[in-house]
Structures are given as C-alpha cells and as structure tokens.
Amino acid sequence: MLAFDENGDCLPISKNGSSTVWEKIAEIGWLSPFSNSMTEDLPIYALIRTRLLLRHWRFYKYVKSVSLAGSHAKGTDLRDSDVDIFIGLVPETPASLKEIQRSLAEHFIPYGSSLRNVSVRVTLDGMTIDLVPARRTFTGHMLWQARFDTWLKTDIAEQIRYVRSSGLINEILALKIWRRRHALKFPSFLMELAAIRAEPRNFRDVLQFLATDFPTARLIDPGNSNNIVSDLLTDVEKLRISRRAAISLGPPFQPRP
C-alpha cells in the first residue's frame, strides 16, 4: 500500500498500521460520489497523486473538487483506459478559462503535459491521465476547448449519470473493443451516446445502427442540449465507421457507397 506526502513523494504504509490510504482519503474527502464503486486501485492512485501535485498550482486555492470522470466514473473503462480527472474551480476564479487551462499545462510540464481539447494530458508513474479543468456555474461547468478556441458549457455529473444508468455498459465496452480492433477515430463519449441511441438488444443491434442511421444521427450532450456531440466527427469519418460496421455485420449489409 502506498501513500504520498504533501510534495507528492511516495510514503510506505504498513498493512498492519493504524492508518491506511483509504482512511486518509475518507478523512480529507478526496473521492467524488461517482468513485465510490471503483474497485481497481489505479484510478484512485491517480486521483490522490494528482490532488497532491495540484497543491502548488497557481489556482489551487480556487479548486472546489477533484474527482474521477470519463470512462472510470461511468464504468465503461477497459483495463488500459486513460484516467480522466475533473478539476472543478469556483466561479470566482480570477482568470479566463483559457488561462486556467494553459496554467495547468505549465504546472505539469515535468510530467510531459500537452494540451488536448478540453484537457491537459500528463503521464504519472506510467499512467496516462487527462486533467479537465472547469469553472463551476449554477447549472454545470464551463470548459475551454483549445481545439476551437472557445468555451463549452456542460454538466459532467449528468453525463456520468446518463451513461451509468443506461443499462448498456456491456454493449459500450464491446463497442470500444471493436473500435480499437479496427483503429477507428471514434470519440468515447460519442460512441457511448451512439450505443445508447441504438436501443440494442445485443451488440449486433449496435453495429446495425452504426451501419445505417449513425452517419445522419444527431446525438446531443445530456449535460447541455445545445452541444451536438455528433459534430465531433466529419461526414467522411462517420461514413468510415458506418462502412466498417456494415462489413462486420456481413451480408445482407454492405458498406455505404
């Protein structure tokens, strides 16, 4: 069992000791409501390690919460999935979203930080971690999209709830494996929404939806209906997914022309 001091350095904790990592987590309140069901150690390890390394960040005193997000929070993670960590800041944080994101990237330069779209990607102890900073609003959070140089409003908690309560975790996991096998560009959140829209009885139904309706489907963000998640892909990229799904289905389905 491992723990870390205020500088993020590793400290050993005996299994027979009076204190454990989990007691420390509970005492300080690091875990989010969405991480209570996590049974794997690595996401929790990443969460604790990140929280400690944030303590010397320029905007740390404005941090309201640090919690698991993405596939590990939704229950749709594969064994080697990246860890997404959501960093919620109070509305009074004295900087623009763009400045906050860039400042976070600069703070984590020793860990190979790089800007993605709404996240800062770092590598901690061999783990790939996407840090997602956001400013709290009355109805959700505001994130910065570096790729489009503009802000995005959404509700991360609602996104997590929507996927977790879909009852389609196995279908989503199968779709992720299928995506990897065919090396397709298919953003994970869009893929989750597509699987849910398919209303499948089995995985074949998911592939059928991708082969037929997906290229023209309008898939929206459950955290903000103004966000069209399906727009993350071009028409060409959608058709590539559709054709691959048709091929996977076999006759009578054929790739779109």
SSE topology:
Layout (H helix, E strand, L loop, with lengths): L1 E3 L5 E3 L8 H8 L12 H13 L9 E7 H5 L8 E7 L7 H11 L6 E2 L4 E5 L2 E10 L4 E5 L4 E5 L1 H9 L4 H13 L6 H10 L5 H10 L7 E2 L2 E5 L6 H15 L8
Parallel strand pairs: 4-7
Antiparallel strand pairs: 1-2, 3-4, 5-6, 6-7, 7-8, 8-9, 10-11
Q: Under the CATH scheme, which architecture of the largest domain would be assigned?
A: 2-Layer Sandwich
What value does the Rg take, in angstroms? 20 Å
Number of helices: 9
Domain count: 2
Q: Give the overall form.
A: globular
Distance linking N and C termini: 56 Å
- What is the count of β-strands? 11
Could you give the order of the helices and strands? EEHHEHEHEEEEEHHHHEEH
Q: Tell me the β content.
A: 15-25%
Q: Which secondary-structure class do the elements indicate?
A: alpha+beta
Please outline the major beta sheet: 7 strands, mixed
Kindly state the mean pLDDT as a whole number? 85
Write down the CATH class of the largest domain: Alpha Beta
Question: What percentage of residues falls in helices of 4 or more residues?
Answer: 25-40%
Low-confidence stretches: 1-20, 25-39
CATH topology of the largest domain: Beta Polymerase, domain 2
Descriptive notes:
Residues 1-20 and 25-39 have low confidence and may be disordered. The chain has 2 domains: 2-162, Beta Polymerase, domain 2, CATH 3.30.460; 166-249. Helix content is 37%, strand content 21%. The protein has 257 residues and is α+β, with helices and mostly antiparallel strands. The protein has 9 helices and 11 strands. Strands 3, 4, 5, 6, 7, 8 and 9 form a 7-stranded mixed beta sheet that branches. Strands 1-2 form a two-stranded antiparallel ribbon. Strands 10-11 form a two-stranded antiparallel sheet. Strand 1 (2-4) and strand 2 form a beta hairpin. Helix 6 crosses helix 7 (188-197) and helix 8 (203-212) packs across helix 9 (235-249). The longest helix is centred in the last third of the chain and has 15 residues, at 235-249.
